[in-house]
Design brief:
Rossmann fold; 310 residues; 8 strands; alpha/beta; 13 helices; eight-stranded mixed beta sheet
Length: 310
């Protein structure tokens, strides 16, 4: 998909299963950027299971993505509602239509295109759990795909499945434009054994077609994901992020930028119970400081990228 974006950055927050703190990260990252005078729109893209409005302490919006998808509202901008946070608006998720979680292809493409042209500096997408095509496509449209995991073996496994699925979904988008449908089908064939990692896939593709395989290798090199560790209970948990970055690069060929760890903090669940963002309810808490640092690290990545652009 071509980016004809007015939006400076789109940030998608995803992961493996639910319960890892994606909405906590999404909401408070959006607040942190709004507090830095960014014009921010947070989109509840957990289709069919929206709760961002609750974390922001506002009522379920009267107009939601359902109205846009079903063409009751023509412009996505008209679904935006203000929040109590200066510079922050919300596009509410679809609680009122069960089938909105299964968008038709044309509906999804239209939504993805128009997310990129919202009048905002930053759009934050709070994604649903799992690896459905809808979730992966929202993740892939972003300039920054944030992967949230807990410092636990099962969460790390789920996070790897998510990022692996996202990469192979990316290949599905590219195969027609690159003219490599047959190569991908052959490389993915189970006759030589199932491909287990993106690195193994690229090696097999290069053995079949060196030139096309090299192009796929570049795609893998450019496929960068931002990593956040949530609920770290000590330095060892925070170091899990560094270990994941190193191991996934070596064994899977995946590139990650580690944005930081969010400490386990009672202030986080107290803020959720009060239906207020942590950065508003507990701005001096350890977890709030970590979230602000993650926002700063994202802005620093953008600044470095801009300085390298001719």
């Amino acid at each position: 998909m071509q980016r004809r974006s007015q939006v400076r950055r789109i940030i998608a927050v995803g992961g493996g299963k639910g319960g890892i703190g994606k909405t906590l990260v999404s909401v408070n990252l959006a607040v942190a950027l709004a507090q830095r005078n960014q014009k921010v729109v947070i989109v509840d893209a957990d289709l069919g299971g929206a709760n961002v409005h609750t974390c922001l302490g506002i009522a379920q919006p009267q107009t939601t993505l359902t109205d846009y998808v079903e063409r009751r509202i023509a412009r996505l901008e008209d679904v935006c509602v203000p929040t109590s946070i200066p510079n922050l608006s919300l596009i509410g998720g679809a609680l009122d239509a069960l089938d909105v979680a299964n968008l038709k292809f044309q509906q999804k493409q239209k939504l993805l295109r128009n997310l990129q042209t919202l009048d905002a500096d930053t759009v934050v997408l709070d994604l649903g759990a799992g690896t459905s095509f809808n979730v992966l496509d929202f993740f892939l449209v972003a300039h920054h795909g944030l992967l949230v995991l807990l410092p636990e073996p099962t969460s790390i496994e789920n996070a790897y499945r998510f990022i692996k699925s996202a990469f192979f979904r990316r290949l599905q988008d590219l195969q027609t434009s690159m003219g490599i449908e047959d190569l991908i089908e052959t490389a993915m064939s189970t006759r030589e054994g199932a491909v287990r990692t993106p690195l193994e896939f690229v090696a097999r593709a290069k053995a079949i077609d060196a030139e096309a395989g090299a192009r796929l290798e570049r795609e893998l090199e450019q496929f960068r994901v931002r990593l956040v560790v949530n609920q770290a209970r000590g330095p060892g948990d925070a170091d899990v992020g560094h270990a994941v970055v190193s191991a996934w690069r070596k064994f899977f060929g995946l590139n990650l930028d580690y944005l930081g760890a969010i400490s386990y903090d009672d202030a986080a669940w107290r803020a959720v119970r009060k239906r207020r963002p942590l950065l508003v309810e507990g701005p001096e808490s350890i977890a709030a400081a970590a979230l602000r640092k993650i926002a700063d690290n994202l802005l620093a990545l953008d600044a470095r990228s801009a300085s390298r652009t001719p």
